[in-house]
């Protein structure tokens, strides 16, 4: 098994200040990790490789960018992919189908994916991506988007939005809970789910504002509890 201090490698390569050598090392490490089935480390090396391409030469790495996108979509435990959109070689693919499918997995819905697949099934198959695995992932990602918008959702609404039968909603939610992307409670009596928390698929200005608001609420709650404790101390 390849055991490499990735941060140390990046430090060395920055000190060498030789882009071509850096790319060669990142590619060798990527291939080594991949051959040892260390897909997470391999993906990290590929991202570092793609970062070495400035905007003006980003098109030279289109093949690597395409493989990187496919790898992220295909990995079963990878859910957040918005950082790929910041890479120059990935942006150079904007007019291509691979970029469209990435955008769907970053912020689209299962309806978007199904429409894309119906129109481009040959392309999806040609990438090596598995349609059924894609459906599972985008269905879970769609669910994450829904619970970030609604504190409560009925089984009927989920059935419609996720393109699954109502009787399969509960088993689907159990599948979601295993990913730890969301904390929800199933209300079987009323046929609904109640959300406690959920991950964000993207983290932009809106998410920062929500986080700031929640931090303010927590601070207010803590101050209230602190005041209550101070008030009851004289009576103890």
TrEMBL record:
Keywords: Initiation factor, Protein biosynthesis. GO terms for molecular function: translation initiation factor activity. The keyword Protein biosynthesis applies. InterPro entries: COPS7/eIF3m, eIF3m_C_helix, PCI_dom, WH_DNA-bd_sf. PROSITE patterns: PCI. It comes from the Eukaryota. GO terms for cellular component: eukaryotic translation initiation factor 3 complex. SUPFAM superfamilies: Winged helix' DNA-binding domain. GO terms for biological process: cytoplasmic translational initiation. Belongs to the CSN7/EIF3M family. CSN7 subfamily. This is Eukaryotic translation initiation factor 3 subunit M-like. The lineage of its organism: Eukaryota, Metazoa, Cnidaria, Anthozoa, Octocorallia.
């Amino acid at each position: 098994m390849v055991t490499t201090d990735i941060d140390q490698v990046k430090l060395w390569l920055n000190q060498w200040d030789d882009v071509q050598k850096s790319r060669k090392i990142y590619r060798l490490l990527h291939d080594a990790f991949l051959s040892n089935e260390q897909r997470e480390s391999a993906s990290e090396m590929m991202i570092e490789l793609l970062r070495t391409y400035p905007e003006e030469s980003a098109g030279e790495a289109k093949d690597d960018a395409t493989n990187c996108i496919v790898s992220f979509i295909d990995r079963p435990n990878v859910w957040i992919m918005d950082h790929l959109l910041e890479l120059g070689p990935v942006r150079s693919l904007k007019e291509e189908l691979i970029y469209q499918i990435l955008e769907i997995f970053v912020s689209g819905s299962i309806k978007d994916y199904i429409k894309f697949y119906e129109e481009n099934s040959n392309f999806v198959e040609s990438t090596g991506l598995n349609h059924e695995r894609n459906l599972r992932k985008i269905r879970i990602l769609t669910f994450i988007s829904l619970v970030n918008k609604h504190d409560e959702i009925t089984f009927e609404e989920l059935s419609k939005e996720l393109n699954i039968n109502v009787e399969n909603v509960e088993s689907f939610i159990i599948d979601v809970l295993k990913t730890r992307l969301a904390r929800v409670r199933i209300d079987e009596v009323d046929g609904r789910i109640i959300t406690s928390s959920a991950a964000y698929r993207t983290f932009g200005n809106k998410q920062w504002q929500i986080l700031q608001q929640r931090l303010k609420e927590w601070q207010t709650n803590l101050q209230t509890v602190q005041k209550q404790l101070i008030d009851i101390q004289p009576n103890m």
